[in-house]
């Protein structure tokens, strides 16, 4: 038990900085311009990438 507590005390805030937010659904989205629109749908779609965990999502305009 003591070792587990010590391990957890090793600056968790710094190690998990951002990832905790990402797991909670608060990603740091930044627009990526590699794929400006979806050809299949013929709609303008912006591709976003999370700068912390690398997750991507698209948003139709
Ligand atoms: Zn993220």
Concise summary:
This protein has helices at residues 2-8, 12-15, 19-23, and strands at residues 29-32, 37-38, 43-50, 56-60. It starts with a helix and ends with a strand.
Jot down its keywords.
single chain; 61 residues; alpha+beta; four-stranded antiparallel beta sheet; 4 strands; binds zinc ion
Structure commentary:
- Strands 1, 2, 3 and 4 form a four-stranded antiparallel β-sheet that branches.
- This protein has one domain (2-60).
- It is of the alpha+beta class and 61 residues long.
- The chain is built from three helices and four strands.
- The chain has helices at residues 2-8, 12-15, 19-23, and strands spanning 29-32, 37-38, 43-50, 56-60.
- It is 26% helix and 31% strand.
- The mean pLDDT is 75.
- The structure holds zinc ion.
- Zinc ion binds next to loops.
- Zinc ion (ZN) binds next to loops.
The secondary-structure element order is HHHEEEE
- The helicity comes to 25-40%
Instruction: Report strand %.
Output: 25-35%
Using only C-alpha atoms, the radius of gyration works out to 18 Å
Secondary-structure-based class equals alpha+beta
Q: How many distinct domains?
A: 1
Q: Provide mean pLDDT, rounded.
A: 75
Number of strands: 4
Biggest β-sheet strands, sense, barrel: 4 strands, antiparallel
> Uncertain segments of ≥5 residues (pLDDT<50)?
none
- The helix tally amounts to 3
Termini separation (Å)? 52 Å
Which compounds are bound in this model?
zinc ion
Shape: rod-shaped
